[in-house]
C-alpha cells in the first residue's frame, strides 16, 4: 500500500475533483450532504472559522495494487473488503488526529474510491479545521504519517509498495 498526502488551502475544489473529475464513488462521510457541490459548501462553512489557516485541506490517497501474473511488473495481489477499506481509512484519520474525541472534536471528511485494472485508490478529503474550531496539528506530520501507514500495513497485512510489488 502506498500513501500520498496533498495539501490545499480549501476542500471545496478538492472534493469536486475527486467525486466529479475522477469519478470516485462516495463510500463514507460524516457530513450531511452527498453531492460534490453541497459537500463543498459544508467544507467551506468550517474553513471560514479559521481564515488565518493557510492549509486547511488534505487529500490523502491510499493506492492498493492488484496485478495479474502476466503484468510486466509481475503479480501483486492485495485486496481489502469494503468494510476493511472503511476501517483502514477510519483508523488512519483517528491515529492522525482528525477524529479524536466525540462529536464536534472531529474533522469533516469524505472517503471515496476509484478503481482501475491495476489498482484501487482510497481518496480521503479531510479538513484540518475541526467542527469545534480547533485545528489538527501538522507538527511532525510526515513522521506520524509514516508511522501510522507502517502500522496499518502490518495490521491489514498489506505490502509496503514503495519497496515491493
UniProtKB/TrEMBL annotation:
Pfam families: Relaxase. InterPro entries: Endonuclease_MobA/VirD2 (IPR005094). This is MobA/VirD2-like nuclease domain-containing protein. Residues 22-156 form the MobA/VirD2-like nuclease domain.
